[in-house]
Design brief:
It contains nine helices and no strands. It is an all-alpha fold. It is globular and about 65 Å long.
């Protein structure tokens, strides 16, 4: 099956089904499925731009999906914060209960905002983009498909390696995860046949760990910000302070572990 059929028959239907599901029930799982489909389209936009040396054009191609992507991401981050706050901070602490209430209220507002973007999603422009990608990315043989994928992957991994050598900060690590995610998604979308499946498994595991790191960093920033503000008015529980310091130490260990695995990935990443 060519890329054209894959995009038009699979990705489009999956995207619209995912949007419908979030409109019926705006749950964490449904948002996750929606964002996976949006990330597939974003990866295809980048692949097209890469193949045609039009690197800025990927942003223009993705424009019909941008608002939906951004607002679903904000809502999904809020869901993840709620889940990890309850899981990590188990103490019966007034401040934590207050933070849970704030997250719940924020979720209600973010849900309204997201549903508005879903209701006003530009279906015609989105379909036009997918048709355009379908026409230009359709390849005639598995060999050509593999060649395009290898070129894309080499460029992505070269960018990742440069960032790793410079010592990436939090934002850059999150960007690295997105680049690895694009490599992984295109591997699946294009049905790539390669003898480097072990590398793909390594990329898959690493991007999951980087995702966990990002979620814990969001949790730390959210809780610590409110602790600092609350400490201006009253004493903070020593147990809670110990807990937040332990979370920071845990995050640093996760970050170091991810950097080690990124270095190992770079050593094994030559196609």
């Amino acid at each position: 099956m060519g890329t054209e059929k894959i995009i038009s028959a699979t990705i489009s239907s999956q995207l619209y089904q995912a949007i419908d599901e979030t409109q019926k029930e705006c749950s964490n799982d449904h948002l996750h499925t929606l964002r996976l489909n949006l990330k597939k389209i974003k990866a295809l936009c980048i692949l097209f731009a890469n193949n045609n040396n039009e690197h800025q054009n990927s942003k223009a191609l993705f424009l019909p999906f941008k608002r939906l992507f951004r607002h679903s991401g904000r809502l999904r981050d809020n869901f993840q914060l709620e889940k990890r706050l309850i899981h990590y901070f188990t103490e019966d602490e007034k401040l934590i209960n207050c933070l849970q209430d704030k997250l719940h209220n924020r979720k209600e507002k973010l849900t309204v905002s997201y549903l508005n973007k879903a209701e006003n999603f530009e279906h015609e422009k989105a379909a036009s983009t997918l048709d355009y990608l379908s026409f230009h990315l359709d390849v005639k043989s598995p060999l050509e498909r593999l060649g395009n994928y290898k070129t894309f992957t080499r460029l992505r991994l070269a960018s990742v390696e440069e960032q790793v050598l410079q010592g990436p900060n939090k934002g850059q690590l999150h960007h690295i995860r997105a680049q690895l995610k694009h490599i992984l998604m295109l591997y699946k979308i294009l049905n790539v046949v390669s003898n480097r499946s072990n590398l793909i498994t390594q990329i898959d595991n690493l991007q999951e760990e980087l995702g966990n790191l990002h979620d814990f960093e969001l949790l730390y920033h959210y809780v610590n910000e409110h602790i600092e503000e609350e400490s201006k008015h009253r004493n903070i529980s020593p147990i809670l302070l110990t807990r937040i310091h332990s979370l920071n130490d845990f995050i640093e260990k996760l970050r170091i572990n991810c950097l080690k695995k990124l270095t190992l990935l770079m050593n094994n990443s030559h196609f």
